[in-house]
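### Sample
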Amino acid sequence: MEKLKNLRKLYNYKQKDLAALLGVKPKDISDWELNKSQPELKILRDIAVIFGTSVYDLLSNNLVTTTSWQPWNTDKRIDSFWGHIGILLYNSNVIKWYPVTSATANRVERVLHDDQPDTQSKILAVKTLNNRLLFINKSKIKKISLLDDASDVPKDWELPWDGYQGLGAEEYYNLIEEYFFNYELFCENTSEKLQIIIDELIKKNRITDDNVLELINDVYIYFHDNTTETISIEDASALFNSIMDIEFEISRFIHFEDLNGEIHFIPRESVGLIDTPLYLYKTGFHELSNNE
């Protein structure tokens, strides 16, 4: 796990420091970094939370995204919190703000600078640090803003409850889902210390059986006339397929199947912003990859 070594050095931890946090031996850290062995899932989750990331990012070939603000980071394999992207819809005076990483902010700025009048792609996809995957219809919005965290807060600053830097780590969203929908598995694969943290996080933010879908499973459709529709998704693979259709602009209609089995067909041109759950999308990607 070369990523573990990179993160540890970025956070200025010695092997013995990280070992103490995880309750293991320094030799275990060395073995993991040298790929001589791999930690069990309980420890991987603890590592993800310590470094503000996810088990998915630790084990995949993708960049490691972290919710920590680290402007001194020069490691291109680690992508840390930068600031916020704001989307202003037509018929609205309120900007919707989401936390993003440095690489995401740079990509958005580059894409918009290079966008030409005859550009075929109208959809801009953006991953956020509060578990959202956004699809912005560039032709159906008033404005996109980028705000460095070092800048002053704007007058219209309104954030969702987890909108500053997310919950602190992407892994928290996966853990909350498991807590509510597969508690036995949650207890089996989560350290006692992290179980306590999740329990306190749920109580502090008043997450309940009645509203957990809003955090984990709900898709929000923001139409250009400033009306909104919420669709609760259960099937991660189906969500992944719907998102692929959106991103590659395959059809004139966007479609989602909700947890009741109803299929929603929505004209693409009527939509300004689609806000989907990032971790459910990643789960769908894994499910389809494993089936192949």
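DSSP finds twelve helices and eleven strands in the chain. This sample (HTH cro/C1-type domain-containing protein) is used throughout the tutorial notebook.
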